[in-house]
Design goal:
Layout (H helix, E strand, L loop, with lengths): L11 E2 L2 H8 L8 E5 L5 H8 L4 E5 L3 H11 L4 E3 L16 E6 L5 H10 L8 E9 H8 L9 H9 E9 L4 E2 L6 E8 L10 H11 L7 H8 L3 H7 L12 H13 L1
Parallel strand pairs: 2-3, 2-5, 3-4, 5-6
Antiparallel strand pairs: 1-8, 6-9, 7-9
Length: about 260
Amino acid sequence: MIKAKKSLGQNFLIDENIIKKIVSLIEINNKSILEVGPGTGNLTSYILKKNPKKLLVVEKDKNLADLLKKKFEDKILMINDDILKVNEKNFDNEKLIVFGNLPYNISTEILAKWILNLENKNFWFDALILMFQKEVADRIISKFNSSKYGRLSILANWKLEIDKICDIRPGSFSPKPKVDSSLLFFKPKKNFPQFKNSKNLEKITRIFFNQRRKKIKKPFKVLFQDNTKVLNKIKIDLNLRPHNLKQEIYYELTQEYEKL
């Protein structure tokens, strides 16, 4: 009997109705698939029923990796490693469809890594179908002027179209988490703002949201030294607070910052 490890943020998805819903969201037949955090292989089984061309599986837990290799044999390609240490560019030559019941303790880190490591329009995936703690999912999809809107919303929506599929109750997992979860569907955008270095977007949002309840006058001064040209070009009111600015403003600010 495999026990979930709290240290790895493991909550195994056991609800067949939710699993069926997940695999029906996109055509899997003859496609290359990546599953992150397969746990005991409940979703894995349903993915295989849809006849993918290839199924790569990343599982950090050695006991679970051994269990999955024994259970599925040559039907899966196992990578027994930490997803944060795996270079996604080495996964496959073909674009992947990614499924992930992500460990809640590192879910935002995984998403941020995948977005920041993308080079221009060289997406290594066709779609991401990912499970998050509901509170995190709400932050990812939140719009400006919302209390949940922040750095994660701005980063996630930069290169990706995001749809919320559904919320999922704790009873769909074993062991039951203490919070609800949400399933999100991400598709690459065809057009998005270009930066010389994506870490500049991280820097801009970090400085602006460092004191999210205060006016943006101070962070603007820190970054642009009261540059009136930038202020006039982007037309922002320095009496606003960080969550009052649309995502597009942060992308423009990053581009202007890179010109300095």
